[in-house]
Amino acid sequence: MKKNYKNKKRTKNKYIKKRDAKSIIIACEDSVSAPTYFNSFLKKLKQKGKITQDSLIIPHTGRTHPTGVLDDLVIYRNEEGKGFKEFDYKWIVIDRDKESMQGSGHSKEDFEYALKKAKRLNIKVAYSNPSFELWYLLHFKRVIESIDRHEVIEEVIKELKKLDKDMFRNLAIGNIKTQKNTKKITKRIKRFKKIALKNAQFLKRLHTTYKNRVNPESDNPLTNIDALIELFDKLSR
Protein backbone atom coordinates (compact mmCIF):
# COMPACT_ATOMS: atom_id res chain seq x y z
CA MET A 1 0.00 0.00 0.00
CA LYS A 2 2.81 2.36 0.86
CA LYS A 3 4.44 1.75 -2.51
CA ASN A 4 1.23 2.49 -4.37
CA TYR A 5 0.78 5.70 -2.37
CA LYS A 6 4.25 6.88 -3.35
CA ASN A 7 3.55 6.15 -7.00
CA LYS A 8 0.32 8.09 -6.75
CA LYS A 9 2.11 11.02 -5.20
CA ARG A 10 4.77 11.03 -7.89
CA THR A 11 2.11 10.89 -10.61
CA LYS A 12 0.19 13.73 -9.00
CA ASN A 13 3.28 15.92 -8.69
CA LYS A 14 4.23 15.18 -12.27
CA TYR A 15 0.73 16.19 -13.38
CA ILE A 16 0.87 19.45 -11.43
CA LYS A 17 4.28 20.31 -12.88
CA LYS A 18 3.06 19.69 -16.42
CA ARG A 19 -0.14 21.64 -15.84
CA ASP A 20 1.79 24.63 -14.48
CA ALA A 21 4.36 24.73 -17.30
CA LYS A 22 4.35 28.00 -19.21
CA SER A 23 4.26 28.33 -22.98
CA ILE A 24 6.55 30.50 -25.12
CA ILE A 25 6.36 31.54 -28.75
CA ILE A 26 9.17 33.44 -30.49
CA ALA A 27 9.63 34.83 -34.00
CA CYS A 28 13.16 35.73 -35.17
CA GLU A 29 14.40 38.04 -37.88
CA ASP A 30 16.96 35.59 -39.21
CA SER A 31 16.40 31.98 -40.17
CA VAL A 32 19.39 30.20 -38.62
CA SER A 33 21.65 31.85 -36.02
CA ALA A 34 19.16 33.40 -33.57
CA PRO A 35 16.68 30.47 -33.79
CA THR A 36 19.48 27.94 -33.25
CA TYR A 37 20.81 29.91 -30.28
CA PHE A 38 17.42 30.36 -28.57
CA ASN A 39 16.34 26.80 -29.30
CA SER A 40 19.25 25.58 -27.17
CA PHE A 41 17.48 27.18 -24.19
CA LEU A 42 13.98 26.02 -25.14
CA LYS A 43 15.16 22.43 -25.60
CA LYS A 44 16.48 22.24 -22.03
CA LEU A 45 13.37 23.90 -20.59
CA LYS A 46 11.17 21.35 -22.38
CA GLN A 47 13.29 18.45 -21.17
CA LYS A 48 12.89 19.65 -17.59
CA GLY A 49 9.13 20.15 -18.00
CA LYS A 50 9.46 23.88 -17.34
CA ILE A 51 7.71 24.93 -20.56
CA THR A 52 5.05 23.25 -22.67
CA GLN A 53 6.02 20.95 -25.52
CA ASP A 54 4.29 23.25 -28.03
CA SER A 55 6.56 26.17 -27.10
CA LEU A 56 8.56 27.11 -30.16
CA ILE A 57 10.42 29.45 -32.41
CA ILE A 58 8.09 29.69 -35.38
CA PRO A 59 9.31 28.66 -38.85
CA HIS A 60 10.94 31.48 -40.78
CA THR A 61 8.92 32.78 -43.72
CA GLY A 62 11.65 34.80 -45.41
CA ARG A 63 10.54 38.16 -44.09
CA THR A 64 13.45 39.84 -42.32
CA HIS A 65 12.15 43.37 -41.65
CA PRO A 66 10.77 44.03 -38.13
CA THR A 67 7.11 44.48 -39.07
CA GLY A 68 7.27 41.33 -41.19
CA VAL A 69 8.64 39.33 -38.25
CA LEU A 70 5.85 40.70 -36.06
CA ASP A 71 3.21 39.86 -38.66
CA ASP A 72 4.56 36.30 -38.88
CA LEU A 73 4.02 35.89 -35.15
CA VAL A 74 0.54 37.42 -35.23
CA ILE A 75 -0.78 35.20 -38.02
CA TYR A 76 0.92 31.98 -36.86
CA ARG A 77 -1.26 29.03 -35.90
CA ASN A 78 0.01 25.61 -34.86
CA GLU A 79 -1.57 22.33 -35.94
CA GLU A 80 -4.20 22.62 -33.22
CA GLY A 81 -5.07 26.16 -34.30
CA LYS A 82 -3.37 27.77 -31.29
CA GLY A 83 -2.39 31.39 -31.96
CA PHE A 84 0.06 33.75 -30.30
CA LYS A 85 -2.50 35.14 -27.83
CA GLU A 86 -2.85 31.72 -26.23
CA PHE A 87 0.84 31.51 -25.30
CA ASP A 88 1.99 32.81 -21.92
CA TYR A 89 5.08 34.53 -23.32
CA LYS A 90 5.18 36.12 -26.76
CA TRP A 91 8.42 37.54 -28.20
CA ILE A 92 9.93 38.76 -31.43
CA VAL A 93 13.69 39.08 -31.93
CA ILE A 94 14.74 41.87 -34.30
CA ASP A 95 17.78 43.97 -35.26
CA ARG A 96 17.91 47.70 -35.84
CA ASP A 97 20.14 46.98 -38.85
CA LYS A 98 20.12 50.43 -40.44
CA GLU A 99 19.75 50.73 -44.19
CA SER A 100 23.02 50.77 -46.10
CA MET A 101 24.13 52.05 -49.49
CA GLN A 102 24.02 48.45 -50.73
CA GLY A 103 20.29 48.25 -50.03
CA SER A 104 20.43 45.93 -47.01
CA GLY A 105 18.87 46.71 -43.65
CA HIS A 106 15.51 48.30 -42.96
CA SER A 107 14.03 51.70 -42.30
CA LYS A 108 13.70 53.60 -39.05
CA GLU A 109 9.95 53.81 -39.64
CA ASP A 110 9.58 50.04 -40.00
CA PHE A 111 11.58 49.36 -36.84
CA GLU A 112 9.73 51.92 -34.73
CA TYR A 113 6.31 50.83 -35.97
CA ALA A 114 7.12 47.22 -35.05
CA LEU A 115 7.98 48.31 -31.50
CA LYS A 116 4.74 50.28 -31.14
CA LYS A 117 2.52 47.59 -32.61
CA ALA A 118 4.15 44.86 -30.51
CA LYS A 119 3.52 46.85 -27.34
CA ARG A 120 -0.12 47.29 -28.34
CA LEU A 121 -0.45 43.52 -28.84
CA ASN A 122 1.32 42.70 -25.57
CA ILE A 123 4.24 41.12 -27.43
CA LYS A 124 7.72 41.58 -26.00
CA VAL A 125 10.57 42.65 -28.27
CA ALA A 126 14.19 41.51 -27.94
CA TYR A 127 16.10 44.02 -30.03
CA SER A 128 19.74 44.61 -30.87
CA ASN A 129 21.37 47.71 -32.31
CA PRO A 130 23.09 47.08 -34.64
CA SER A 131 22.57 43.29 -34.78
CA PHE A 132 22.05 40.04 -32.88
CA GLU A 133 25.80 39.33 -32.92
CA LEU A 134 26.27 42.20 -30.44
CA TRP A 135 24.88 39.80 -27.84
CA TYR A 136 27.69 37.35 -28.66
CA LEU A 137 30.28 40.10 -28.35
CA LEU A 138 29.05 41.17 -24.91
CA HIS A 139 30.04 37.74 -23.59
CA PHE A 140 33.65 38.80 -24.10
CA LYS A 141 33.85 42.51 -23.50
CA ARG A 142 32.07 45.78 -22.85
CA VAL A 143 31.40 47.76 -26.03
CA ILE A 144 30.83 51.48 -25.66
CA GLU A 145 31.39 53.21 -29.00
CA SER A 146 28.98 53.02 -31.93
CA ILE A 147 29.63 49.97 -34.10
CA ASP A 148 28.12 48.64 -37.33
CA ARG A 149 27.01 45.06 -37.91
CA HIS A 150 30.07 44.12 -39.99
CA GLU A 151 32.43 45.38 -37.28
CA VAL A 152 30.46 43.44 -34.66
CA ILE A 153 30.88 40.19 -36.56
CA GLU A 154 34.58 40.83 -37.14
CA GLU A 155 35.06 41.45 -33.40
CA VAL A 156 33.10 38.31 -32.49
CA ILE A 157 35.20 36.17 -34.81
CA LYS A 158 38.38 37.63 -33.34
CA GLU A 159 37.25 36.89 -29.76
CA LEU A 160 36.09 33.36 -30.60
CA LYS A 161 39.41 32.51 -32.21
CA LYS A 162 41.22 33.76 -29.11
CA LEU A 163 38.90 31.60 -26.99
CA ASP A 164 39.38 28.41 -29.01
CA LYS A 165 41.76 28.62 -31.94
CA ASP A 166 41.17 25.05 -33.10
CA MET A 167 37.38 25.04 -32.90
CA PHE A 168 37.00 28.36 -34.70
CA ARG A 169 39.96 28.11 -37.07
CA ASN A 170 37.75 28.36 -40.18
CA LEU A 171 35.16 30.76 -38.78
CA ALA A 172 34.53 33.69 -41.11
CA ILE A 173 31.94 36.35 -41.95
CA GLY A 174 30.54 34.06 -44.64
CA ASN A 175 29.83 31.11 -42.35
CA ILE A 176 29.29 32.51 -38.85
CA LYS A 177 25.51 32.37 -39.26
CA THR A 178 25.34 28.68 -40.17
CA GLN A 179 23.62 26.24 -37.81
CA LYS A 180 26.83 24.26 -37.31
CA ASN A 181 28.86 27.29 -36.22
CA THR A 182 26.02 28.76 -34.17
CA LYS A 183 25.87 25.53 -32.14
CA LYS A 184 29.61 25.74 -31.55
CA ILE A 185 29.38 29.39 -30.53
CA THR A 186 26.44 28.74 -28.20
CA LYS A 187 28.27 25.88 -26.49
CA ARG A 188 31.47 27.86 -25.93
CA ILE A 189 30.04 31.19 -24.77
CA LYS A 190 27.32 30.03 -22.36
CA ARG A 191 29.74 30.00 -19.44
CA PHE A 192 30.21 33.76 -19.97
CA LYS A 193 26.47 34.46 -19.76
CA LYS A 194 26.71 36.48 -16.54
CA ILE A 195 29.28 38.76 -18.17
CA ALA A 196 26.96 39.33 -21.14
CA LEU A 197 24.03 40.13 -18.83
CA LYS A 198 26.10 42.69 -16.93
CA ASN A 199 27.43 44.28 -20.11
CA ALA A 200 23.95 44.54 -21.66
CA GLN A 201 22.62 46.17 -18.48
CA PHE A 202 25.61 48.54 -18.44
CA LEU A 203 24.73 49.74 -21.95
CA LYS A 204 21.19 50.58 -20.85
CA ARG A 205 22.52 52.62 -17.94
CA LEU A 206 25.03 54.31 -20.24
CA HIS A 207 22.35 55.43 -22.69
CA THR A 208 20.09 56.72 -19.90
CA THR A 209 22.80 58.88 -18.31
CA TYR A 210 21.56 62.04 -20.02
CA LYS A 211 17.97 61.01 -20.77
CA ASN A 212 15.16 59.16 -19.05
CA ARG A 213 14.98 56.11 -21.29
CA VAL A 214 16.79 54.15 -23.96
CA ASN A 215 15.98 54.57 -27.65
CA PRO A 216 16.41 51.19 -29.42
CA GLU A 217 16.35 52.87 -32.82
CA SER A 218 19.19 55.33 -32.25
CA ASP A 219 21.18 54.02 -29.26
CA ASN A 220 24.15 52.05 -30.57
CA PRO A 221 25.40 49.74 -29.15
CA LEU A 222 22.33 48.49 -27.32
CA THR A 223 20.47 45.22 -26.76
CA ASN A 224 17.83 43.87 -24.39
CA ILE A 225 18.31 40.21 -25.26
CA ASP A 226 19.33 39.92 -21.62
CA ALA A 227 15.63 40.25 -20.71
CA LEU A 228 14.78 37.14 -22.71
CA ILE A 229 17.73 35.21 -21.25
CA GLU A 230 16.63 36.22 -17.74
CA LEU A 231 13.15 34.88 -18.54
CA PHE A 232 14.70 31.54 -19.48
CA ASP A 233 16.65 31.56 -16.21
CA LYS A 234 13.51 32.35 -14.22
CA LEU A 235 11.57 29.53 -15.87
CA SER A 236 14.37 27.03 -15.26
CA ARG A 237 14.19 27.42 -11.48
Description:
With 237 residues, the chain is an alpha/beta fold. Helix 2 (33-47) crosses helix 7 (179-189). The chain has helices spanning 2-20, 33-47, 66-75, 108-120, 133-137, 149-163, 179-189, 193-207, 225-236; strands spanning 24-28, 56-57, 89-95, 124-129, 222-223. The chain has one domain. Helices cover 49% and strands 9% of the residues. The chain is built from 9 helices and 5 strands; from the N terminus they run H-E-H-E-H-E-H-E-H-H-H-H-E-H. 34% of the residues are buried. Strands 2-1-3-4-5 form a 5-stranded mixed sheet, sandwiched between helices. It is globular. Helix 2 (33-47) links the parallel strand 1 and strand 2 (56-57).
The structure class reads alpha/beta
Order of helices and strands: HEHEHEHEHHHHEH
Count of DSSP E strands?
5
Order of strands, widest sheet: 2-1-3-4-5
Low-confidence runs of at least 5 consecutive residues: 1-17
Rounded to an integer, what's the Rg over CA atoms? 19 Å
Element layout with pairings:
Layout: H1 2-20, E1 24-28, H2 33-47, E2 56-57, H3 66-75, E3 89-95, H4 108-120, E4 124-129, H5 133-137, H6 149-163, H7 179-189, H8 193-207, E5 222-223, H9 225-236
Helix pairs in contact: 2-7, 8-9
Summarize this structure as a short list of keywords or feature phrases.
disordered N terminus, 237 residues
In short:
It contains nine helices and five strands. It is of the alpha/beta class.
